[in-house]
Amino acid sequence: MKLEQEIKQPKFRNEFHKLAVNILYTNSWLVNLYSNLFSKYDITSNQFNILRILRGQYPNPATVNLLKERMLDKMSDVSRLVERLRIKGFIKRDLKPNDRRCVDVVITEKGLLLLKEIDKLNDKHDSFLTKLSESEAKKLNNLLDKLRD
To answer: Which CATH number is correct for 42-148, 3.30.70.1350, 2.170.150.70, 3.30.230.70, 1.10.10.10?
Structure first.
């Protein structure tokens, strides 16, 4: 559906204004789709993002600062997210004895199993975007990369 119909706004200042609103609206749309998907596993999109980062680091630990650098949502409170994942048993954290401010975070077997279960839904994740062809997706990826360059 066209953006104008979705948000009931018939006019924009110009195409650049419309593009900004369209990107923000589409981001919200995707966040809602993924939030519904992750809610079945009692995790948030940001918690999923941390688990994915930790799986990529596994078996090596990651610091909270490394997690902050790699998060998709740079405004996330990573320390709080890490603590919630620790309570659920998906990660463990260890204070470094020589620097108590520095914490090593590692995904647990339970966390790896959760991601393995969620990975079974990769086709469903991809299906949110299959109204575009693969070449259109590649072109859009290139355009978004160019926009941020």
So the answer is: 1.10.10.10
